[in-house]
Design a protein that fits this description.
about 210 residues, about 55% helix, Rossmann fold, single chain
Length: about 210
């Protein structure tokens, strides 16, 4: 459908007014909200992810596209309630204690939200108790931890051990990422997966939750 393609392009190109107008037009044409989300907005963010992985897009482009996607999605929200559409899953994200870096985490969050996931951002310098309390309260499907320093990455293991002590480990998938982190380290600390970049993070979450690509 041509209008859905135009909507994807509007997200890709960061055209907020155009994206909102297209969503309104599609709703007026009685197009199913789930089609507008999956074939328009999320497809656009998937294209953004491809460009990001290829090195053609950087943080400003990703954040702009995410802003456009959220603005257009606001128009759809009430219709989602009407037809009973749920988000694809809940994710809690945070940079571990002692680490104040958040650019990579923020890109991952933007990409996950663009892919239809509900994300809670705990920010930076997050201790194990805060991670555990949010897993208890929010009951996310996935917990994501980020670290950019070799000195802070071991703290990820402390968080996983705390989850085990509280009997929560089996209730949530744990993923890790960041410059010094790799697949081997993720397996050694008992995480469920590792992602090298934001695009891989989205694919990993989809795989862990067995969510079909929209």
């Amino acid at each position: 459908m041509h209008e859905l393609h135009l909507l994807s392009q509007a997200v890709l190109e960061g055209k907020e007014d155009e994206a909102r107008s297209l969503v309104q037009n599609l709703l007026a044409m009685n197009v199913n909200p789930s089609r507008i989300l999956n074939e328009g907005l999320i497809k656009g963010m998937d294209m953004v992810g491809e460009k990001f992985r290829a090195g053609e897009y950087y943080l400003p482009e990703v954040l702009l596209a995410s802003k456009v996607m959220h603005s257009a999605f606001d128009i759809l929200k009430s219709r989602f309630v009407d037809v009973g559409i749920r988000t694809r899953g809940k994710v809690v994200m945070g940079t571990v204690k002692g680490d104040l870096h958040d650019i990579g985490k923020n890109i991952v969050i933007a990409m996950l939200e663009g892919a239809g996931f509900d994300v809670v951002d705990l920010g930076v310098d997050v201790d194990s108790r805060t991670f555990v309390e949010n897993v208890q309260e929010i009951e996310p499907h996935v917990l994501g931890m980020s670290a950019l320093l070799t000195t802070t990455m071991p703290y990820m293991k402390e968080v996983i051990e705390e989850l085990e002590r509280e009997g929560l480990r089996k209730r949530v998938k744990v993923i890790v990422g960041g410059a010094p982190v790799n697949e081997r380290f993720a397996m050694e600390i008992g995480a469920d997966g590792y992602a090298e970049d934001a695009g891989e993070a989205v694919q990993l979450v989809r795989k862990l939750l067995d969510v079909e690509v929209g």
